[in-house]
Amino acid sequence: MAEWGGEAEKARWRLRTAAALLLGAFLGFLTRHFFLDDFGLNALTDAGWPRWAVVGTLGGIVVWLSGPWEIGRRGLLIGEALTFGVPGAFFIWIHQHGLASAPPSLLPKLAAAFPGAAAAPWMLLIQVYGLFIPNRAGRAATVLAVMAAVPLAIACVTAARFDEVYAVLFEQGLFSAMAVWILISAAAALYGAVRLSTLREAAREAREIGSYRLVERIGSGGMGDVYLAEHRLLRRPCAVKLIRPGLAEDDRALARFDTEVRAAARLTHPNTIEVYDFGVSEDGLFYCVMEYLPGLTLHQLVQRAGPLPPGRVVHLLAPVCGALAEAHAIGLIHRDVKPANVVAADRGGVRDVPKLLDFGLVKRINPAPLFDTPPIDAPPDGGAHHAFRNDGDGNRDGDAADAASDPQLTQLGSVVGSPLFAAPEVARGGRPTAESDLYGVGATAYFLLTGRPVFDEPSPAKALRAHAKQRPRPVHEANPAVPLDLSAVVMRCLEKNPAERFRSAAALAAALRACECAAEWSDDAARDWWAATEGVPSPRHPALLDDGRRGRASVGADDATLGDFVLQDDSVVEVDPNSRGVVVETHTPDDTAVHPAPSR
Asked: Where are the membrane-spanning stretches (predicted)?
């Protein structure tokens, strides 16, 4: 089913209802068939055992969906295909059989009735699908387009076999009428399916998860949707991430979600995003509650202000190195350090507090157990493993146990992280290390100081090749305002050989703070900058003021496959002009895609 997560039981109920409705229709036609004695115009009803086969299949599906056993996402997808595919196959067979077995004298009458007789059952099938199987627009349009095209294609094949049908369809012009009927039915079903899906999403946004009231959806990331929320008792704003519909029955996706949350929860550095809560709602929806960060990502800062002053870059990145040092000390690497994953936040009235986001690509680098307790149990009957891939066809062998026990959930053979900020060893397909994170810090610093990535290539594949093979232009040449000592620190981070970079994140932080420009930016300077900027972040989201002001986040997503490089779970979340906040997860395949800064 296209809509999933906590809606599993509702999805099962809808499919069962659709199968029961079609079963009732076929039983009605069977009853009618018993009272038709003469062959005549009823030749098309002379189906015999195929109709009973359809009744048996639909009845079996209804019983299967009504049982006490668990049915996973893959099972429901199979049930959906059988519920609509078996009747469709019967419709194709019955019209061909009826015309082929009819006496020649009856062919003109049967041909005259063919357009309506062929279109009506498919229109019923289309309407039932649109009403009971709500989808997102893309999937609904694909399925309904196939269901609309099949009867029209069969009509053309039938016209080629029978001259009488050809005369009715094409010489009398009834094929176009038949096409209009079916296409109108498909368009209405598509509208209904999307509308129902939209209404269900709106109802979901108005719900409560545990002790948290969801206010509005503010973004979407690789693993799930992110909502602005408020604790019912504390009235504290927070960000709640719900695992994306369609992934709740994927053991690997759940394992990655579990690993991300547990990794972030174990980190206590003040410059790492804080995890408040984690659990499963009453209807089986996985969620994670994190601090809400008013502010802008470093990528958005550069979009708005251009290259940042060297002192501000040191002010923002030295604490990030401290956050990475804590992660590295307990055996974790981030693997996706980039401007979009660092927020210049407002915390307690202090501006430009850097916060490192998104441990969705976290990887353990030591053999010691990471957690004292086992991961959460995934729902039984795990579904299709479509979120992770590492071969040329986008498939990977393995079972859920592997995923649950190994945090390396973005599989080897795929490029981990973002191509524009990928370390050379990662671009070559090697294992990322703590030094890879330091390369990400250097690439981020380069972007902040120059306003462009280290290698400004037009495609992810070319960017990865450049990181692997080309030497970057020194940052002080790209921007003469960058002091030589800071340029030397950045360029050391960008060394191709990991051994030639800084020995640790703590050493990098010390080198940054030792630069002469480090004292050029302070908390007061940050406060003055934000005060002079129209987009001053607010510590309280407008939607929490209950004055009716609601914003909508601009969300884009892309899964790109270019040449030998497979990029997974990449999406970008932009801050809504009204919300003045950033969400807790951002993956971007191209962090340099410049979008106009929101006007305020």
From this structure: 18-36, 48-65, 77-94, 114-133, 140-162, 174-194
Q: Which residues are annotated as a binding site?
A: 241
Domain that holds residue 95: 5-194
Q: Look up residue 342 and give its two tokens.
A: 């660092």
> Which pLDDT score is estimated for 134?
65
Please indicate, yes or no, whether residues 296 and 337 belong to a single structural domain of this protein.
Answer: yes
Within a domain: 511 = yes
Residues 247 and 254 sit within 8 Å (Cβ to Cβ): yes
Same domain, 316 and 408: yes
Q: Do residues 190 and 212 both lie within one domain?
A: no
Structure token digits, residue 268: 């206590």
Measure Cα distances from 273 to 26, 281, 290, 422, 448 in Å.
57, 23, 7, 22, 21
Angle (deg, nearest 10), helices 310-329 and 523-532: 120
Mean pLDDT of 511-522: 95
Statement to judge: residues 187 and 244 lie in one domain: no
| Helices and strands in the chain, H and E counts | 18, 16
Same domain, 35 and 133: yes
Q: CA-CA distances (angstroms) from residue 212 to 207, 232, 290, 356, 544? A: 9, 6, 11, 24, 13
**Is residue 169 located within the same domain as residue 221?**
no
Q: Looking at the structure, do residues 294 and 325 belong to the same domain, yes or no?
A: yes
Annotated binding site for ATP: which residue ranges? Answer: 241
DSSP secondary structure, 213-226, as one string: EEEEEEEE-SSEEE
CATH of the domain at 336: 1.10.510.10
What type of residue is 402?
A: D
Classify residue 350: in a domain, yes or no: yes
Residue positions annotated with a catalytic role: 336
List, edge to edge, every strand of the sheet that includes 293-297: 350-356, 342-347, 293-297, 581-582
**How large is the C-alpha radius of gyration of the chain?**
29
pLDDT of residue 473: 95
Length of the chain as a residue count = 600
pLDDT digits (tens, 9 = 90+) for 378-430: 333 333 222 222 233 333 333 333 333 333 333 333 445 688 999 999 998 88
pLDDT in tens, 437-473: 999 999 999 999 999 999 998 888 899 999 999 999 9
Whole-angstrom distance between the N-terminal and C-terminal Cα of the chain? 40
Q: Say yes or no: 183 and 250 in one domain.
A: no
Q: Do residues 580 and 479 make contact, with C-beta atoms less than 8 angstroms apart?
A: no
Query: Which of 194, 227, 244 is where one domain is finished?
Result: 194
Query: Which residue is it, tokens 């307690």?
Result: 348
Helix spans in 306-355 (H)? 310-329
Q: Is residue 314 part of a domain?
A: yes
Q: Please, are residues 155 and 175 in contact by the beta-carbon 8 Å criterion?
A: yes
Cα–Cα dist 235/426, whole Å: 43
Report which residue type is found at 499. A
Structure tokens at 264: 């972030």
Q: How far apart are CA 214 and CA 219, in angstroms?
A: 13
**In whole angstroms, what is the distance from residue 359 CA to residue 341 CA?**
10
Dig out the tokens for 205 from the structure: 């946004």
Cα 375 to the center of its chain, rounded Å: 22
The whole model's pTM is what? 0.55
Q: How many structural domains compose the chain?
A: 2
Any domain includes 293: yes
